[in-house]
Amino acid sequence: MQVWKDYIEQHKDRFLNELLDLLRIPSVSADSKYKEDVAKCAEAVKEHLLLAGCDIAEVCPTAGHPIVYGEKITDPSLPTVLVYGHYDVQPADPLELWTSGPFEPEIRDGKIYARGACDDKGQMFMHIKALEVMAKTGTLACNIKVMIEGEEEVGSSNLEQFLKDNKDRLKADVVLVSDTSMISMEHPSIETGLRGLAYMEVEVTGPNRDLHSGVYGGGVLNPINELCRMIASLHDENRHITVAGFYDKVAELSAAERQAINEAPFSQEDFNKDLGITQEAGEKGYTTLERTGIRPTLDVNGIWGGYTGEGAKTVLPSKAFAKISMRLVPNQVSTEISDLFAKHFTNIAAPGVQVKVTSHHGGEPVVTPTDSKAYQAAARAIETTFGKEPIPTRGGGSIPIIALFESILGLKTVLLGFGLDNDNIHSPNEKYDVFNYFKGIETIPYFHKYFAE
Ligand code: BES
Ligand code: MN
Ligand code: MN
Asked: Ligand 1 atom 9: the closest Cα is on which residue?
């Protein structure tokens, strides 16, 4: 629509500068040092909602970081879209690997470099700007409710209660989220699934204190040696996961569904080159797209213990630790998988060490329908602005709250993401293409228009 194009063109510089300002706020939810910055970011988001044309916008306190809520109700008889996103970001470390400061956004080669540029400030803000475009040009086709949280990166632990407490207020016809990726700008795609998550921490204890590794070594189990042995045993030679019962509920896809997944454009060579690896690897019998989309995984995220400082210290440590996460697929249940893991990990411990297993956050996998009105509206919107029909793909990441939208609010979600897999989310030099940012702002109004039709 020409009025949208014109409005975006006229306000292009401001739309970009406003995002850069938002990226300057270090809203790291995991680190209490940034609590005030997180709060400041919530205020900024609220102000932007009001400026964009919301009738009401407020910062809702929670037991953790606040949730920002706003709405623009044009006519109660119109369909209502609930937009979800998050304004919190991952920690920026290791800082020395960034070319420019993580909270000093810089545009290089048409890309915005900053923590949160893609995940999710850049993508979330597209919705606020799209709302402005529609509100200021008098073209709102749907009622819009916007819920932007500040705890996605730490497990959304207070959002569940917020959904339960605000069921009425959050009544809508669909949830629209931009917090996922596309294959490429040449091959637009829509993620139709997310994996679930079970995140564990393990502690292995040997002797009651750190020991001289010469005086005692050989006579006592070393908890780091033991932890490594246990972790190594969690995959077999085919890289199947050995946790007893782990695959019991895994939904196996039909040959036709698997074929469809593998028809998506994907170059193994480019994938390897981008990551600097000489050979891909993973669960036997599956392709890379299947391994990262429809198969469950188990990965060590961190492992520590003993002496890691400068030089050498001969020590036989008392304790060893690891953080281990599992990505889940339909119909695995995160609490069940956590229990299976805890049982299994305790069982494989040698007599002579003690094992403690604790569970961090979890989340359930989701599959979103492609035959719904909402998906069709999203596909049409992309076709309109990209000139190509989007390819449905199964994403490997997790957004735990999406499953709760369905179970608590009874709402299905459309994952209309504009990121790219190599946007370095959670990594140094996170980026988001200026082109993708404006493409998103241009596409979102079409979703509202088509969804209302
Ligand atoms: N936006 C991501 C999830 C994502 C990224 C989905 C790319 C699909 C494609 C989200 O912010 C995220 O990082 N989620 C975490 C889980 C959360 C509980 C910390 C994840 O996937 O590790
Ligand atoms: Mn995200
Ligand atoms: Mn994230």
From this structure: 180
